[in-house]
Specification:
- This protein is α/β, with parallel strands linked by helices.
- Helix content is 32%, strand content 14%.
- The chain has helices at 10-26, 67-73, 124-130, 141-150, 162-166, 168-173, 179-192, 205-211, 228-238, 248-255; strands spanning 2-5, 31-34, 60-61, 86-90, 107-111, 154-159, 197-202, 219-220, 241-243, 264-266, 288-289.
- It has a 6-stranded parallel beta sheet, with helices on both faces.
- Helix 8 (205-211) links the parallel strand 7 and strand 8 (219-220).
- Helix 9 (228-238) crosses helix 10 (248-255).
- The chain starts with a strand and ends with a strand.
């Protein structure tokens, strides 16, 4: 069996699920999630909630299984590994480690963020089938969904501020990508398309509406409710083209759009102060970095 340690927000949860699902296929094993991260609050982290139960994913929870004790027992061994019985695979660096996908054990534990399509691309078709939204949408969802469907070229723009501005650690590591990036991206969109409509998603809509001078036909998406993030992600995926932030959340909004002809614009500089974190493997080859 493969145990994926799930942490952080929805975008990271999806990356952690995707590699665990791929390795469960390679190991012909059941998929388990370790949700112990969500039992605590962390001073340096934004409060998060587990969200993967809102998709058609076939998994079991480690807390509800005798495997919990087997997992804890691995702490008695050096590096928590005793091949081929069990192995702890920890993420060593941000770029892809090809050795990770060679891991084989009866009990395989994954610990990391794994932010690259290369960790799961061979299983992409299966993952797309499982990442079907099953949550009950909020009251505004259908209105936005219909507006996207009526638009010739609906283009999602994701502007993340929130913890990138207000959280000391996140503002240092990531930070708001800056308004100039969006101006460049919008210029590229206007060169490429003559008939388009922007759908703007943000965790700071008030600031965004004041500071972004877009066409009068622009839609500022304002979902509400405890699953407004799921509704935002779902609507992003229904757009034809995407301008994403330096955020795993809008990365997935773009990736879930399966159209091979989509245009995805992404920031070239994903981090502010991580010079050793190479994003070569983070951005799919067909996406455009500016």
């Amino acid at each position: 069996m493969v145990i994926g340690r799930i942490t952080s927000g929805l975008g990271n949860q999806l990356f952690q699920y995707a590699i665990a699902r791929h390795l469960s296929i390679l190991n012909k094993a059941s998929l388990y999630f370790d949700l112990s991260y969500y039992k605590y609050q962390y001073e340096t982290d934004t409060p998060r909630v587990f969200k993967l139960h809102n998709f058609k994913i076939d998994y079991k929870l480690l807390d509800n299984s005798p495997l919990l004790y087997a997992s804890k027992a691995t702490k008695l061994f050096p590096e928590r590994t005793l091949k081929p019985v069990f192995e702890l695979v920890k993420e060593k660096h941000f770029h892809v480690d090809p050795e990770v996908l060679k891991a084989r054990a009866k009990l395989l534990i994954l610990d990391g963020f794994w932010q690259s399509e290369k960790y799961f691309s061979p299983a992409a078709a299966i993952i797309r089938k499982e990442l079907v939204f099953t949550n009950q949408p909020g009251p505004a969802f259908e209105k936005y969904k219909n507006e996207i469907a009526r638009s010739a070229n609906p283009i999602s723009i994701h502007i993340r501020r929130g913890d990138y501005v207000n959280n000391a650690e996140f503002s240092q590591s990531f930070g708001f990508i800056g308004i100039d990036y969006y101006h460049q991206a919008i210029k590229l969109i206007k060169r490429q398309f003559t008939d388009f409509r922007f759908f703007v998603f943000s965790d700071d809509q008030e600031w965004t509406e004041k500071n972004f001078d877009l066409s009068s036909d622009t839609v500022f998406v304002k979902n509400i409710g405890e699953n407004s993030d799921l509704d935002d992600l779902h609507l992003m995926s229904l757009c034809k083209h995407h301008v994403i932030a330096n955020s795993s959340f809008s990365w997935w909004g773009a990736w879930l759009n399966a159209d091979p002809n989509k245009m995805v614009i992404t920031p070239k500089n994903w981090f502010k102060n991580k010079p050793d974190w190479h994003t070569t493997d983070l951005i799919p080859d067909s996406w455009l970095s500016v």
